[in-house]
Give the backbone structure.
Amino acid sequence: MKQILVALLAGALFGAGLAFSGMADPARVQGFLDLFGHWDPTLAFVMGGAMIPMAVAWIIQRRLDKPFADAHFSLPGTSLIDRKLTIGAVLFGAGWGISGLCPGPGLADLAINPLPALAFVIALFAGMIAHRVTS
Amino acid sequence: MLAAFPHAMPLEGLIGGLMIGVAAALMLLGLGRIAGVSGLAARATGIADSGAPRGIATAFVIGLPLGAYILSAIIGGVETRFPPSIIPLLIGGLLVGYGTRLGSGCTSGHGVCGMSRLSPRSLIATAIFMASGFVTVALMRAGGLL
Protein backbone atom coordinates (compact mmCIF):
# COMPACT_ATOMS: atom_id res chain seq x y z
CA MET A 1 0.00 0.00 0.00
CA LYS A 2 2.82 2.38 0.85
CA GLN A 3 4.42 1.67 -2.53
CA ILE A 4 1.18 2.45 -4.36
CA LEU A 5 0.88 5.78 -2.53
CA VAL A 6 4.49 6.73 -3.30
CA ALA A 7 3.93 5.93 -7.00
CA LEU A 8 0.65 7.87 -7.08
CA LEU A 9 2.30 10.88 -5.40
CA ALA A 10 5.27 10.73 -7.78
CA GLY A 11 2.95 10.50 -10.80
CA ALA A 12 0.82 13.39 -9.57
CA LEU A 13 3.84 15.61 -8.89
CA PHE A 14 5.23 14.68 -12.32
CA GLY A 15 1.91 15.55 -13.99
CA ALA A 16 1.65 18.83 -12.07
CA GLY A 17 5.21 19.71 -13.11
CA LEU A 18 4.40 19.02 -16.76
CA ALA A 19 1.31 21.22 -16.55
CA PHE A 20 3.06 24.07 -14.70
CA SER A 21 6.09 24.10 -16.99
CA GLY A 22 4.09 24.45 -20.21
CA MET A 23 5.06 20.96 -21.33
CA ALA A 24 1.39 19.88 -21.39
CA ASP A 25 1.04 22.32 -24.31
CA PRO A 26 1.89 20.49 -27.56
CA ALA A 27 2.44 23.77 -29.45
CA ARG A 28 5.08 24.86 -26.91
CA VAL A 29 6.95 21.55 -27.14
CA GLN A 30 6.77 21.66 -30.92
CA GLY A 31 8.03 25.27 -30.65
CA PHE A 32 11.19 23.97 -28.96
CA LEU A 33 11.75 21.58 -31.87
CA ASP A 34 11.04 24.33 -34.41
CA LEU A 35 14.53 25.77 -34.89
CA PHE A 36 13.57 27.57 -38.09
CA GLY A 37 10.35 29.11 -36.73
CA HIS A 38 9.59 31.01 -33.51
CA TRP A 39 11.95 28.91 -31.40
CA ASP A 40 10.73 28.47 -27.80
CA PRO A 41 13.53 27.47 -25.39
CA THR A 42 11.19 26.63 -22.47
CA LEU A 43 11.76 22.86 -22.75
CA ALA A 44 15.49 23.36 -22.11
CA PHE A 45 14.67 25.08 -18.79
CA VAL A 46 12.37 22.19 -17.84
CA MET A 47 15.08 19.62 -18.60
CA GLY A 48 17.65 21.69 -16.71
CA GLY A 49 15.33 22.04 -13.72
CA ALA A 50 14.62 18.31 -13.64
CA MET A 51 18.34 17.46 -13.77
CA ILE A 52 19.04 19.21 -10.45
CA PRO A 53 17.03 17.00 -8.04
CA MET A 54 17.84 13.91 -10.09
CA ALA A 55 21.61 14.54 -10.06
CA VAL A 56 21.40 14.72 -6.25
CA ALA A 57 19.16 11.64 -6.16
CA TRP A 58 21.70 9.54 -8.10
CA ILE A 59 24.45 10.57 -5.65
CA ILE A 60 22.24 9.51 -2.74
CA GLN A 61 21.23 6.32 -4.55
CA ARG A 62 24.82 5.12 -4.75
CA ARG A 63 25.10 5.30 -0.97
CA LEU A 64 21.91 3.34 -0.27
CA ASP A 65 21.55 -0.43 0.04
CA LYS A 66 17.87 -0.29 -0.83
CA PRO A 67 15.18 2.32 -1.54
CA PHE A 68 13.07 3.76 1.29
CA ALA A 69 9.83 1.99 0.40
CA ASP A 70 10.91 -1.13 -1.48
CA ALA A 71 13.12 -4.17 -1.07
CA HIS A 72 15.77 -3.39 -3.70
CA PHE A 73 16.76 -1.16 -6.61
CA SER A 74 15.48 -2.33 -10.01
CA LEU A 75 17.51 -0.23 -12.44
CA PRO A 76 18.28 -0.79 -16.12
CA GLY A 77 21.82 -1.15 -17.52
CA THR A 78 23.42 1.95 -18.97
CA SER A 79 25.81 0.73 -21.66
CA LEU A 80 23.96 -1.22 -24.39
CA ILE A 81 23.74 0.91 -27.53
CA ASP A 82 22.27 -1.07 -30.40
CA ARG A 83 20.08 -0.76 -33.50
CA LYS A 84 16.89 -1.04 -31.46
CA LEU A 85 17.85 1.93 -29.28
CA THR A 86 18.81 4.13 -32.22
CA ILE A 87 15.91 3.25 -34.54
CA GLY A 88 13.46 3.49 -31.64
CA ALA A 89 14.77 6.96 -30.76
CA VAL A 90 14.53 8.11 -34.40
CA LEU A 91 10.88 6.96 -34.64
CA PHE A 92 9.99 8.42 -31.24
CA GLY A 93 11.56 11.77 -32.14
CA ALA A 94 9.63 11.89 -35.42
CA GLY A 95 6.31 11.23 -33.66
CA TRP A 96 7.21 13.76 -30.97
CA GLY A 97 7.84 16.41 -33.62
CA ILE A 98 4.69 15.60 -35.62
CA SER A 99 2.36 15.76 -32.60
CA GLY A 100 4.23 17.89 -30.05
CA LEU A 101 3.53 15.12 -27.55
CA CYS A 102 5.44 12.42 -25.73
CA PRO A 103 3.85 9.85 -23.38
CA GLY A 104 3.86 11.94 -20.16
CA PRO A 105 2.11 15.05 -21.52
CA GLY A 106 -0.26 12.89 -23.57
CA LEU A 107 -1.45 11.09 -20.44
CA ALA A 108 -1.48 14.26 -18.31
CA ASP A 109 -3.58 16.07 -20.91
CA LEU A 110 -6.35 13.46 -20.58
CA ALA A 111 -7.47 15.52 -17.58
CA ILE A 112 -7.07 18.96 -19.17
CA ASN A 113 -8.07 18.53 -22.82
CA PRO A 114 -9.55 15.02 -22.95
CA LEU A 115 -10.65 14.52 -26.56
CA PRO A 116 -7.48 15.30 -28.53
CA ALA A 117 -5.37 13.77 -25.75
CA LEU A 118 -7.41 10.57 -25.99
CA ALA A 119 -6.81 10.36 -29.75
CA PHE A 120 -3.06 10.57 -29.10
CA VAL A 121 -3.14 8.09 -26.20
CA ILE A 122 -5.14 5.49 -28.16
CA ALA A 123 -2.63 5.75 -31.01
CA LEU A 124 0.22 5.60 -28.45
CA PHE A 125 -1.02 2.28 -27.06
CA ALA A 126 -1.72 0.99 -30.58
CA GLY A 127 1.90 1.72 -31.46
CA MET A 128 3.09 -0.08 -28.31
CA ILE A 129 0.90 -3.09 -29.15
CA ALA A 130 2.23 -3.05 -32.73
CA HIS A 131 5.75 -3.29 -31.32
CA ARG A 132 4.77 -6.14 -29.05
CA VAL A 133 3.14 -8.27 -31.75
CA THR A 134 5.98 -7.72 -34.23
CA SER A 135 8.89 -8.48 -31.91
CA MET B 1 12.62 37.61 -19.01
CA LEU B 2 14.12 36.40 -22.27
CA ALA B 3 13.77 39.35 -24.62
CA ALA B 4 14.81 37.38 -27.71
CA PHE B 5 12.12 34.75 -27.08
CA PRO B 6 8.97 36.56 -25.99
CA HIS B 7 6.87 33.37 -25.78
CA ALA B 8 9.29 31.47 -23.52
CA MET B 9 8.38 30.67 -19.91
CA PRO B 10 11.83 30.16 -18.35
CA LEU B 11 10.74 30.57 -14.73
CA GLU B 12 7.68 28.33 -15.04
CA GLY B 13 9.83 25.86 -16.97
CA LEU B 14 12.50 25.78 -14.28
CA ILE B 15 9.99 25.38 -11.42
CA GLY B 16 7.96 22.76 -13.31
CA GLY B 17 11.20 21.00 -14.17
CA LEU B 18 12.20 20.93 -10.50
CA MET B 19 8.80 19.35 -9.70
CA ILE B 20 9.38 16.71 -12.39
CA GLY B 21 12.87 16.06 -11.03
CA VAL B 22 11.61 15.66 -7.45
CA ALA B 23 8.91 13.27 -8.71
CA ALA B 24 11.53 11.19 -10.53
CA ALA B 25 13.77 11.28 -7.43
CA LEU B 26 10.84 10.01 -5.35
CA MET B 27 10.47 7.03 -7.70
CA LEU B 28 14.22 6.35 -7.61
CA LEU B 29 14.87 6.71 -3.88
CA GLY B 30 11.43 5.53 -2.71
CA LEU B 31 10.76 2.59 -5.01
CA GLY B 32 14.16 2.02 -6.62
CA ARG B 33 12.80 2.56 -10.12
CA ILE B 34 13.18 4.81 -13.14
CA ALA B 35 10.25 7.22 -13.65
CA GLY B 36 9.98 6.32 -17.32
CA VAL B 37 6.47 7.11 -18.50
CA SER B 38 6.49 4.95 -21.65
CA GLY B 39 7.64 1.87 -19.75
CA LEU B 40 5.26 2.44 -16.84
CA ALA B 41 2.34 3.02 -19.24
CA ALA B 42 3.16 -0.19 -21.13
CA ARG B 43 3.35 -2.05 -17.83
CA ALA B 44 0.13 -0.54 -16.43
CA THR B 45 -1.82 -1.67 -19.50
CA GLY B 46 -0.18 -5.10 -19.61
CA ILE B 47 1.43 -4.38 -23.00
CA ALA B 48 4.82 -5.04 -21.37
CA ASP B 49 5.32 -8.34 -19.54
CA SER B 50 8.22 -7.22 -17.40
CA GLY B 51 9.07 -4.08 -15.46
CA ALA B 52 7.51 -2.43 -12.44
CA PRO B 53 4.73 -4.26 -10.54
CA ARG B 54 1.44 -3.39 -12.21
CA GLY B 55 0.05 -1.68 -9.11
CA ILE B 56 2.99 0.73 -8.94
CA ALA B 57 2.88 1.39 -12.70
CA THR B 58 -0.88 1.95 -12.67
CA ALA B 59 -0.71 4.32 -9.68
CA PHE B 60 1.98 6.42 -11.37
CA VAL B 61 0.07 6.56 -14.67
CA ILE B 62 -3.18 7.58 -12.92
CA GLY B 63 -1.20 10.19 -10.98
CA LEU B 64 -0.13 12.01 -14.17
CA PRO B 65 -3.57 13.34 -15.22
CA LEU B 66 -4.60 13.67 -11.56
CA GLY B 67 -1.67 15.97 -10.78
CA ALA B 68 -2.14 17.93 -14.00
CA TYR B 69 -5.84 18.36 -13.18
CA ILE B 70 -5.18 19.58 -9.63
CA LEU B 71 -2.49 22.02 -10.78
CA SER B 72 -4.70 23.32 -13.57
CA ALA B 73 -7.52 23.91 -11.05
CA ILE B 74 -5.16 25.73 -8.66
CA ILE B 75 -3.64 28.10 -11.22
CA GLY B 76 -6.88 28.63 -13.11
CA GLY B 77 -6.25 26.68 -16.29
CA VAL B 78 -3.38 25.38 -18.36
CA GLU B 79 -2.93 26.12 -22.05
CA THR B 80 -2.96 23.03 -24.31
CA ARG B 81 -2.73 23.96 -27.98
CA PHE B 82 -3.20 20.69 -29.87
CA PRO B 83 -2.74 20.29 -33.62
CA PRO B 84 -5.98 21.35 -35.34
CA SER B 85 -6.30 17.99 -37.11
CA ILE B 86 -6.52 14.50 -35.60
CA ILE B 87 -4.11 13.12 -38.23
CA PRO B 88 -0.84 14.33 -36.61
CA LEU B 89 -2.11 13.06 -33.24
CA LEU B 90 -2.70 9.57 -34.64
CA ILE B 91 0.51 9.37 -36.69
CA GLY B 92 2.52 10.92 -33.84
CA GLY B 93 0.97 8.61 -31.26
CA LEU B 94 1.73 5.48 -33.31
CA LEU B 95 5.35 6.52 -33.84
CA VAL B 96 5.83 7.52 -30.20
CA GLY B 97 4.28 4.26 -28.96
CA TYR B 98 6.28 2.00 -31.28
CA GLY B 99 9.51 4.01 -30.99
CA THR B 100 9.54 4.25 -27.19
CA ARG B 101 9.03 0.50 -26.84
CA LEU B 102 11.72 -0.29 -29.41
CA GLY B 103 14.11 2.26 -27.89
CA SER B 104 13.20 1.39 -24.27
CA GLY B 105 12.30 4.90 -23.17
CA CYS B 106 11.19 8.43 -23.83
CA THR B 107 11.81 11.97 -22.59
CA SER B 108 11.35 10.95 -18.96
CA GLY B 109 13.24 7.64 -18.76
CA HIS B 110 16.13 8.40 -21.13
CA GLY B 111 15.89 12.20 -20.89
CA VAL B 112 15.32 13.09 -17.24
CA CYS B 113 16.46 9.91 -15.46
CA GLY B 114 19.12 8.54 -17.81
CA MET B 115 20.87 11.82 -18.62
CA SER B 116 21.12 12.80 -14.94
CA ARG B 117 22.66 9.34 -14.34
CA LEU B 118 25.14 10.07 -17.18
CA SER B 119 24.06 6.77 -18.74
CA PRO B 120 25.80 6.50 -22.16
CA ARG B 121 22.79 4.61 -23.53
CA SER B 122 20.37 7.33 -22.47
CA LEU B 123 22.63 10.19 -23.58
CA ILE B 124 22.78 8.63 -27.07
CA ALA B 125 19.02 7.95 -27.15
CA THR B 126 18.19 11.51 -26.04
CA ALA B 127 20.57 13.05 -28.59
CA ILE B 128 18.97 10.94 -31.34
CA PHE B 129 15.33 11.60 -30.48
CA MET B 130 16.03 15.32 -30.06
CA ALA B 131 17.80 15.44 -33.44
CA SER B 132 14.97 13.44 -35.02
CA GLY B 133 12.44 15.87 -33.56
CA PHE B 134 14.35 18.90 -34.86
CA VAL B 135 14.63 17.39 -38.36
CA THR B 136 10.97 16.30 -38.41
CA VAL B 137 9.69 19.75 -37.48
CA ALA B 138 12.10 21.40 -39.97
CA LEU B 139 10.74 19.13 -42.72
CA MET B 140 7.17 19.93 -41.68
CA ARG B 141 7.98 23.64 -41.86
CA ALA B 142 9.67 23.25 -45.25
CA GLY B 143 6.63 21.30 -46.48
CA GLY B 144 4.20 23.98 -45.34
CA LEU B 145 2.68 21.80 -42.61
CA LEU B 146 3.36 24.32 -39.81
